Amino acid sequence: MPNGSPSEITTCFQEAWNMHDMEAFGRLFHPDATFVNRFGTYWRGVAQIVAGHAGIHASIYRDSTLAIDEPDVDPISDDAAILHFWTRLSAGAAH
C-alpha cells in the first residue's frame, strides 16, 4: 500500500495491472473493500477481488495495459479518502 498521498494508489493500481501481479493488486485494497467491474459484477473483500481478476489476467487480459488518469480525491477522514478515476484499457491479441 502506498505511504504517501491517496492519489498514489492509482499509480500502484496501474503498475500492478500492467505487470499482471495479482499479489501486488490485492495489497491495494482494504480487507473489506468492494469492487464493481465493467460488467457490473460486484465483489466484496480482497479474496473475491483478486480471484475475479486472476482468471482474466491469465487469459484474455494477459497482454493488456491500463492507463489511469489523475484521480479525484475526496478525503473523508485523516486516514481515508474516496477516489474516482478514469481508466483506459488496451487489450492485446489475447483478447
What do these coordinates show?
It is a single chain. The protein has 95 residues and is of the alpha+beta class. 32% of the residues lie in helices and 26% in strands. The chain is built from 3 helices and 6 strands. It has helices at residues 8-19, 22-26, 46-58; strands at residues 34-36, 42-44, 65-68, 72-77, 80-84, 87-90. The strands form 3 sheets. The protein has a two-stranded antiparallel sheet. Strands 3-6 form a two-stranded antiparallel sheet. It has a two-stranded antiparallel ribbon with strand order 4-5. Strand 4 (72-77) and strand 5 form a beta hairpin. The protein is globular and about 45 Å long. The model has no long low-confidence stretch (mean pLDDT 91).
What's a quick, concise take on this entry?
With 95 residues, this protein is α+β, with helices and mostly antiparallel strands. Helices cover 32% and strands 26% of the residues.
Labels describing this entry:
95 residues; alpha+beta; two-stranded antiparallel ribbon; 26% strand; globular
